[in-house]
Amino acid sequence: MPHLAEGIARFQRDVFPAKAGLFARLATVHRPGTLFIGCSDARVVPELITQTDPGELFVVRTAGNLVPAHTPGTDGVAAAVEYAVTVLGVRDIVVCGHSACGAMTALAEGRDLSGAPAVAAWLRHADASLARTAAAGRAGDVAALVRENVAAQLANLSTHPSVARALTQGDVRLHGWVFDIADGAVEELPAAFAYAA
């Protein structure tokens, strides 16, 4: 923890003064243009990858960058998506997968997750991704599963009423990305691949 306290001190001493005007504006205005749905993995930092300032991205991070399909009831991911689209009026939504994803690796390799039942239950939201990868003849291929998972999560995202409505009205665009940790590359999936159900 001392390194976090040191980081806060450096932020307050070196970073904040240079961006004081930005933070003063952000204290009263919250208008991000993009909802970025990424993995909880500590190696994937949306603001670093996109080189955006505070206030530009509305970020949701989940294990495996999973977005459950819409269902009635309370759901933290659904609430964040609805807020971003309906209240904040984001114009773009990115679902970003990444290389060496622990969630996708566990699924591709069929790892026993009985000791982590909450994780196992959460990863059921990637069942369609596994099926898509198997149908493409790439079962067990982590990189293929990462790509298929981004596409499947975009399909899930479009089942949310706020997103479906915004898509129909042309108010929002969906994007599927895959970030490669080793070389820093970001691949944007072709729209046809990303939206295939």
Automatic annotation (TrEMBL):
Keyword vocabulary terms for this entry: Lyase, Zinc
Enzyme Commission numbers on file: 4.2.1.1
Keyword Electron transport: no
Domain of life: Bacteria
Reaction(s) catalysed (UniProt annotation): hydrogencarbonate + H(+) = CO2 + H2O
Function as written in the Swiss-Prot or TrEMBL entry: Catalyzes the reversible hydration of carbon dioxide to form bicarbonate. Reversible hydration of carbon dioxide.
PANTHER family: CARBONIC ANHYDRASE, CARBONIC ANHYDRASE 1
Family the UniProt entry places it in: Belongs to the beta-class carbonic anhydrase family.
Stated name of the protein: Carbonic anhydrase
Organism of this sequence: Streptomyces flavochromogenes
